[in-house]
Amino acid sequence: MSARQSRIAIFGATSDIAVAYARRSAAQGARLVLFARDAVALETVAADLKVRGATAVEIRHADFADLSTLPQVSRDAFAAFGGLDVALVAYGSLPDQTALNADPAALKAALDLNFVSPVLLANLLAAPFETARAGAIAVITSVAGDRGRQSNYAYGAAKGGCQTFLEGLRHRLFPAGVTVLDIRPGFVATKMTAHLPQGGPLWATPDQVAGDIVAALEKGRAVLYTPWFWWPIMTIVKSVPRALFHRTKL
Ligand SMILES: NC(=O)c1ccc[n+]([C@@H]2O[C@H](COP(=O)([O-])OP(=O)(O)OC[C@H]3O[C@@H](n4cnc5c(N)ncnc54)[C@H](OP(=O)(O)O)[C@@H]3O)[C@@H](O)[C@H]2O)c1
């Protein structure tokens, strides 16, 4: 699917990965409707996309932790340009597992934001795409969803839950010709990972990931490991015997 004149909705539009994807789409003349909770940052992103060639940019306030608003968010997304070609679900948080272990309320909030909210939204978006018999739902999950590990199993479980949900949604939407893309980045240098020592061969830029997302959507791919080398890495990580895995500090 070409981004030229495409109607694209981005949920979590101030995410660094989402901004990079939006910039590439704007350069192709896309029409974008952007949802985020930070009104000032949203204005800045929208102005930047117009300068970069977007045909139209609409902005909407959304707090994706408020699950009750998601049906209206979905309706607003489709109403902005009279339909959608691509919906990108990009919001999320990377909580500290140790802190979550001591705080069940924070654990629930993390699972709500990283699992319940994105899958509810994806399912709400599914029906109009199904009716249109075209389009793509893309959700950023993570390689962390591929195997639970002691240092971030809440985040990993949320992302893994999203992966399984998307697999089923893809199965449902296959007869309608709607693409469901599960985007699994590895380490990406963004706000989310700013507290980590970014850099080195395993780290990607948001623009590298965005380029892979554009290519995967054009090909109608189902699952995207980005950069590509995370597919062999995770194949190995998943195959490590449990007795050995438990001796690591991963
Ligand atoms: N960076 C990585 O290494 C990496 C790896 C794998 C997967 N991912 C996934 O990639 C996606 C994008 O993350 P990123 O790396 O681009 O980091 P980011 O720049 O920190 O983006 C995360 C976005 O989520 C938004 N958000 C969080 N809670 C929200 C809420 N309640 N309502 C509305 N928006 C909310 C944030 O909004 P504010 O700007 O208002 O805080 C921010 O724009 C996430 O799903 C993340 O889990 C990232």
Question: What's the topology here?
Answer:
Layout: E1 7-11, H1 16-27, E2 31-36, H2 39-51, E3 56-61, H3 70-80, E4 86-89, H4 97-101, H5 104-132, E5 136-140, H6 153-173, E6 179-185, E7 187-188, E8 203-204, H7 206-219, E9 223-226, H8 230-239, H9 242-245
Bound molecules: NADP nicotinamide-adenine-dinucleotide phosphate.
NADP nicotinamide-adenine-dinucleotide phosphate binds next to helix 1 and strand 7.
Question: Could you name the key traits of this structure?
Answer:
250 residues; alpha/beta; Rossmann fold; seven-stranded parallel sheet; two-stranded parallel ribbon; 9 helices; 9 strands; 48% helix; binds NADP nicotinamide-adenine-dinucleotide phosphate
Provide an overview of this structure.
With 250 residues, this protein is α/β, with parallel strands linked by helices. It has a single domain, classed as NAD(P)-binding Rossmann-like Domain (Rossmann fold), CATH 3.40.50.720. The chain has helices at 16-27, 39-51, 70-80, 97-101, 104-132, 153-173, 206-219, 230-239, 242-245, and strands at residues 7-11, 31-36, 56-61, 86-89, 136-140, 179-185, 187-188, 203-204, 223-226. It is globular and about 55 Å long. The model has no long low-confidence stretch (mean pLDDT 97). The structure holds NADP nicotinamide-adenine-dinucleotide phosphate. NADP nicotinamide-adenine-dinucleotide phosphate (NAP) binds at residues 12, 14-17, 36-38, 41, 62-65, 90-93, 113, 140, 142, 185, 187-188, 190-193.
Short description:
The chain has 250 residues and is α/β, with parallel strands linked by helices. The protein has helices at 16-27, 39-51, 70-80, 97-101, 104-132, 153-173, 206-219, 230-239, 242-245; strands spanning 7-11, 31-36, 56-61, 86-89, 136-140, 179-185, 187-188, 203-204, 223-226.
